[in-house]
Write a structure and sequence with these properties.
Shape: globular
Largest sheet: 5 strands, antiparallel
Strand content: 35-45%
Number of helices: 0
Number of strands: 10
Strand order of the largest sheet: 1-7-10-9-8
Order of helices and strands: EEEEEEEEEE
Distance between the termini: 18 Å
Structural class: mainly beta
Radius of gyration: 14 Å
């Protein structure tokens, strides 16, 4: 799975920006990203993503992204079972930058709703 825009609390389409990826790094559709030294890089588990990739890197090393806003809700999956998780919990990002974990310590993705608690279950989150 990946982190995909599910809905917005405003009636606008998010603008797509093309930003340069860090040399030697690959990117996947729906990956959480941040800027470091002026270039995109994979978001760490406890950092709020600044961008979500909405395409893959082009020949110039640029990636189409949308900026993460507080009014956006994203759909992703649980990387591991989260039997104790509930709406309102904040969980960390998985190391792949495409899913969330069941870890609530230093979490950055607030659970809005959950389809289930098993690994692979769909969850909606806000950052």
């Amino acid at each position: 799975m990946s982190i995909m825009l599910s809905r917005m609390d405003v009636g606008q389409t998010p603008p797509i920006k093309y930003l340069t990826m860090t040399d030697g790094e690959s990117v996947a559709l729906g990956e959480a990203l941040v800027l470091s030294a002026g270039k995109l890089t994979k978001c760490s588990a406890t950092a709020k993503p600044a961008y979500i990739a909405v395409g893959v890197k082009n020949a110039a090393g640029e990636v189409p992204v949308i900026a993460v806003q507080s009014y956006m809700t994203f759909e992703t999956t649980l990387q591991a079972a989260g039997d104790a998780l509930k709406k309102g919990d904040k969980v960390t990002l998985h190391t792949d930058g495409l899913q969330v974990t069941a870890t609530t310590a230093s979490g950055v993705a607030e659970i809005v709703s959950m389809e289930g608690t098993a690994a692979g279950s769909t969850v909606l989150v806000k950052f």
